[in-house]
C-alpha cells in the first residue's frame, strides 16, 4: 500500500505542469506515486509530463492520456482514481491518502508532511484544503499590477478568515483526502467527483458530499499552494463567473441544508454589505456636493475605523497590501467587479442550462 498518491489533471498546461511536478519532487515527504491525467490536451502537456516521469530522481510517475473526456476535470480525476482502484482491494488498499492538485499550482515544500500530520490528528477528518496564495511579480503593466495585486490580497485575506469548523469548499488547487472518506462517496454514487457536462465546481460539490457522508473537512494555513492569477479583467471575470455559477448551481440542487446554509447566507450578506457601502458613500458624497466639505467626527471615525480594520486584516501580506487596503478606493473598485460576477453568476445559473466551459 502507498501512503500518499497524487492525481494531477492537466489540460493544455505545457507552461505550468513541470513547475507543479517539480514542487512535488521537492517535498520533504515525497509522494509514493504521481498520476498525471492528460485531459483533452492539444499541446505538449503529455510529452512534458512523460519527460519528468523518465527522470531517475523523480518520484514514481504514471502518465495517463484521456483524449476524449466529456466530463472535464471531474472526469479526469475519476479516471485517475479508477485506474488506481484496479489494484486488489480497491482504492483504500492502494493508498491511505490522495492529493488532488491543479497543474498550474505549486506546493510549499512541506505541504505533504504537514497535511499528513493534520490527518493523523483526527481520524474523522476526510479532507484537508490547501491555503491558496497567488504568485507575485507576474504583471507587465500598471493595470496588471493592480489586478494581480488585488487578487493576491483577496487570496491572502481569505486564507486568514476561512470557516475552519466546516469550510465552504476544498480547493481545487490542492486538496488532501483520506481515501477511506472518498470510498464512502464512491459507495454512495459510484464516483468521487460528480460527472456532469455542466459541473463547474467539482471540488465544492465533493466537499458537500463528504460532509453529507459524515466526514469533517478543514483547512490549514501551513499547507500552502501557490496558484496562477488572472492577468486580464476578461480572464478574471470568466474564471470567477465559472466558480460563482457552479456554486449557485450546486446550492440550487442541494437547497437549504445544514451543509449549504452558511454558503447561502454568506453570499447574500456579502452582496448586501457591498450595497450598503456604496449607498453610504453616495450619501456622503451627495452631502459634500451640496454643502462642501463638512467635518463630521462620527462619519470620520467610521471611515477611519474601517480603513484601519481593512489594513490590519492583510498585515501578514506586507506593508504594500496594508497601504492599498487603508486607501479603501482600490478595494472598493475591485469589490464592484466582484459583485458584478456574483450577479451574472446567479443570472446565468437561472437563465442558461449548459456551460460553455470545455
TrEMBL record:
The chain crosses the membrane at residues 261-285, 297-314, 321-341. InterPro entries: Nucleotide-diphossugar_trans (IPR029044). Keywords: Glycosyltransferase, Membrane, Transferase, Transmembrane, Transmembrane helix. CDD domains: CESA_like. Belongs to the glycosyltransferase 2 family. PANTHER family: POLY-BETA-1,6-N-ACETYL-D-GLUCOSAMINE SYNTHASE (PTHR43630). This is Cellulose synthase/poly-beta-1,6-N-acetylglucosamine synthase-like glycosyltransferase. It comes from Streptomyces syringium. The lineage of its organism: Bacteria, Bacillati, Actinomycetota, Actinomycetes, Kitasatosporales.
Amino acid at each position: 500500500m502507498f501512503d500518499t498518491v497524487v492525481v494531477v489533471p492537466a489540460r493544455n498546461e505545457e507552461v505550468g505542469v513541470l513547475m507543479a511536478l517539480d514542487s512535488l519532487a521537492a517535498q520533504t515527504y515525497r509522494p509514493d506515486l504521481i498520476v498525471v491525467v492528460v485531459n483533452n490536451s492539444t499541446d505538449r502537456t503529455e510529452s512534458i509530463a512523460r519527460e519528468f516521469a523518465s527522470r531517475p530522481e523523480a518520484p514514481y510517475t504514471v502518465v495517463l492520456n484521456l483524449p476524449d473526456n466529456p466530463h472535464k476535470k471531474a472526469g479526469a480525476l475519476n479516471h485517475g482514481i479508477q485506474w488506481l482502484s484496479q489494484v486488489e482491494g480497491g482504492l483504500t488498499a492502494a493508498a491511505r491518502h490522495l492529493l488532488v492538485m491543479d497543474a498550474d499550482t505549486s506546493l510549499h515544500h512541506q505541504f505533504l508532511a504537514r497535511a499528513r500530520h493534520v490527518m493523523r490528528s483526527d481520524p474523522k477528518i476526510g479532507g484537508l484544503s490547501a491555503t491558496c496564495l497567488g504568485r507575485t511579480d507576474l504583471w507587465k503593466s500598471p493595470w496588471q499590477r493592480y489586478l494581480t495585486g488585488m487578487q493576491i490580497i483577496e487570496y491572502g485575506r481569505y486564507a486568514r478568515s476561512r470557516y475552519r469548523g466546516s469550510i465552504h469548499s476544498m480547493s481545487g488547487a490542492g486538496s488532501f483526502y483520506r481515501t477511506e472518506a472518498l470510498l464512502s462517496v464512491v459507495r454512495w454514487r459510484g464516483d468521487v467527483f460528480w460527472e456532469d457536462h455542466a459541473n463547474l465546481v467539482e471540488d465544492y460539490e465533493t466537499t458537500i458530499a463528504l460532509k453529507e457522508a459524515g466526514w469533517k473537512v478543514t483547512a490549514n494555513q501551513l499547507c500552502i499552494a501557490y496558484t496562477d492569477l488572472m492577468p486580464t479583467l476578461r480572464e478574471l471575470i470568466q474564471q470567477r463567473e465559472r466558480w460563482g455559477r457552479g456554486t449557485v448551481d450546486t446550492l440550487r440542487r442541494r437547497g437549504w441544508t445544514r451543509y449549504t446554509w452558511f454558503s447561502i447566507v454568506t453570499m447574500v450578506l456579502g452582496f448586501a454589505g457591498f450595497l450598503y457601502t456604496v449607498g453610504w458613500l453616495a450619501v456622503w458624497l451627495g452631502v459634500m456636493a451640496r454643502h462642501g466639505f463638512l467635518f463630521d467626527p462620527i462619519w470620520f471615525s467610521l471611515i477611519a475605523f474601517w480603513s484601519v480594520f481593512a489594513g490590519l486584516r492583510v498585515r501578514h501580506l506586507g506593508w504594500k497590501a496594508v497601504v492599498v487596503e487603508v486607501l479603501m478606493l482600490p478595494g472598493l473598485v475591485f469589490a464592484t467587479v466582484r459583485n458584478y460576477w456574483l450577479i451574472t453568476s446567479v443570472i446565468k445559473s437561472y437563465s442558461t442550462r449548459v456551460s460553455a466551459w470545455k
